[in-house]
Amino acid sequence: MKCLRYPNLVLRLCIFSTLPLFVRMHHSGLTKIIYCTMTYNTTDPTLTDDEKQLLKALLSDDHELSAYGESRRLFLKQLIAAGGALVAFQLLGDQSLFASVTDAPYKDIPENIEHAVNVSFMVNGTKKSVTVDARMTLLDTLRERLQLTGSKKGCDHGQCGACTVIVNNKRVLSCLTLAATCGGKSVQTIEGFARNGVLHPVQAAFLKHDGFQCGFCTPGQICSGIALMSEVKNGEASYVTTDLRTVHKNIQLTDDEIRERMSGNICRCGAYANIVAAVKEVLSGKDVAQYWPLIPAINEKTVFNPEQHSNKLQP
Amino acid sequence: MRPFKFTVPASAGSAIQAAVANRHAKFLGGGTNLLDLMKEDVEQPDELIDVCELPLTKIERIVSTRGAGVSIGGMAKNTDTANHPLIRKEFPLLSQAILAGASAQIRNIASNGGNLLQRTRCPYFYDIAMPCNKRAPGTGCGALDGFNRMHAIFGWSSACVAVHPSDMCVALAALDAVVYVTGAGGKKRNILFTDFHRLPADTPEKDNNLEQGELITAIEIPSNKFADHSYYLKIRDRASYAFALVSVAAAIETNGNNIVKARIALGGVAHKPWRAMEAENFLAGKTASEDNFRKAAALAMENARPLTQNNFKPAMCQLAITHALNKAMKSGDS
């Protein structure tokens, strides 16, 4: 808890933080920790082990004394705990404060699902078992039930590619995949590609080439890019592949090929040139210079000529 | 989305049985179109029968009453079909058409049977607050006098001017494919691809001639001599990942510089993939020249009936057909 080192900041935050934040905190479950601090309850059954330890450390030596009256030190500690939770909430978001929460099965399973389906599948190498409404998409299951919020809900209609994940080694749209159809399958999401803190080459290349601006489409772009690598290795074709009849393995892709193959991922910030550079660099294994293609000089061939156009219509 | 029962059948037989028993049930293939429509409340099935894992994924050589050919499974994925060595080598037109549609992510989920059964992307069909005879028979057609730039120029009726959205189907129509279906009681039948989809007439709610509970098990493509000279041209508002304004599947069998027979099917112009029979008949026996291609293209557009906002389509189609035939002739040279 880095924030405990800065009590002044914490106190100021406590004073200046506004009501809406407390409302949001209530939904996030952090009020539970603050409440337990105020009531000296370190054995509340709803607390996780990490949370209990944190509270014990906070409340240890003052507990007895407090039975006879509030000490200034304890009051400060309570404030610090409350403020710390606030800061943590603002800085980290509720899903990353306590690591154990991510691994624990999600408690808030809606009751009385009319058509419930039990699904067991692998997510980033770990077996997950969830009971879902038959209507639930893979995207919502990842985000709402497994706390894997890297995959993004852009359009939710299969038009943007932000929800792209890899299922059984194929990139798919998780917003158009029912969780109920994923039993026994292996799902890879953006959270699963870095190894021991080392980024996947496609992730690293996106950073190097600024393959994003706002970053919302990036998890989908990277999943797409990673799947593209194995598609190329297998010799899979695209609409712009010139020789469809011969299957070449490990083909070198032109920029047009990369653009066509990445066209299922829309980037509203328009980082396309850098995305192509990033993908190209990983594919070729060679440094790719960052560049912005110039608008082609206007010449006769690119100018629309209505007369020429109508002549062609004559039989 | 409305609640539905999720059924996983043990076999194709039990899937069909379940679909026959419940007329509000639907087969779930890849779901790339059906789930989208369910989210929009356009489709309202109360049961989904998951047919994706059924063993209907083979792509293999077969011999039927029509002679030698290749069968592609109804549940084979679009990607696997487009990239199968047999399809790429012998029916590159089909590979190209599949790859022209949607995105890699969608083709990886979408099944061949589902591709045939996908519904129109007419915005009036998608918006449940709008009139649409296809979605809600009797409510009228919003597109007839509305925004109809993307709509039909052939075969439409005052009840519906929507177009079929598939690219794959345009190639299958050109390649004289045959659809294999199994229905109630295990009854099997074969439907010529050109008879599979319907024109709207006064029943636009029916997209095709399948009966209640019938499942597409496979699609047969008869062997042909078009592989050296074929091309799928798709023209759209952006370079990729968009539906066709118009598309052309062109295939030519040649003897020297003479055309033995030609196939031309158009997408984005009608309620079904549109075969340009007059143009095909004109080209048979002619020299493979640009002049003849232009004449054929003009013939193909003779009976076009554009709507208020798509009168650019006949001219665009005419150029597209000529271009596709030229590209098809050159495709063998590379």
Description:
The complex is a heterodimer of chains A (about 325) and B (about 325). Chain A is built from 13 helices and 5 strands. Chain A has about 325 residues and is of the alpha+beta class. Chain A has a 5-stranded mixed β-sheet, with helices on both faces. Residues about 1-40, about 60-70, about 90-100 and about 310-315 of chain A have low confidence and may be disordered. Chain B has about 325 residues and is an alpha+beta fold. Chain B has a domain at about 230-330: CO dehydrogenase flavoprotein, C-terminal domain (Enolase-like, domain 1, 2-Layer Sandwich), CATH 3.30.390.50. Chain B is about 30% helix and about 20% strand. Chain B contains 13 helices and 12 strands. In chain B, α2 links the parallel β2 (about 25-30) and β3. In chain B, α11 runs antiparallel to α12 and α12 (about 290-300) runs antiparallel to α13. Chain B is globular, with a radius of gyration of 20 Å. The chains are: A alpha+beta (about 325), B alpha+beta (about 325). The interface between A and B is large, with 49 and 48 residues.
Question: What does the secondary structure layout of this molecule look like, with pairings?
Answer:
The complex is a heterodimer of chains A (315) and B (334).
Chain A: H1 7-16, H2 19-28, H3 30-38, H4 49-59, H5 63-66, H6 72-92, H7 99-103, E1 116-123, E2 126-133, H8 138-145, E3 164-167, E4 170-173, E5 186-188, H9 201-208, H10 218-233, H11 255-261, H12 272-284, H13 306-313
Parallel strand pairs in A: 1-5
Antiparallel strand pairs in A: 1-2, 3-4, 3-5
Chain B: E1 5-7, H1 12-21, E2 25-28, H2 34-39, E3 47-50, E4 59-64, E5 67-73, H3 78-83, H4 85-90, H5 92-100, H6 104-109, H7 112-117, H8 123-126, H9 168-174, E6 178-182, E7 188-192, H10 193-196, E8 215-222, E9 230-236, E10 244-255, E11 258-267, E12 274-275, H11 277-283, H12 290-300, H13 313-331
Parallel strand pairs in B: 1-3, 2-3
Antiparallel strand pairs in B: 4-5, 5-8, 6-7, 6-8, 9-10, 10-11, 11-12
Helix pairs in contact in B: 5-9, 11-12, 12-13
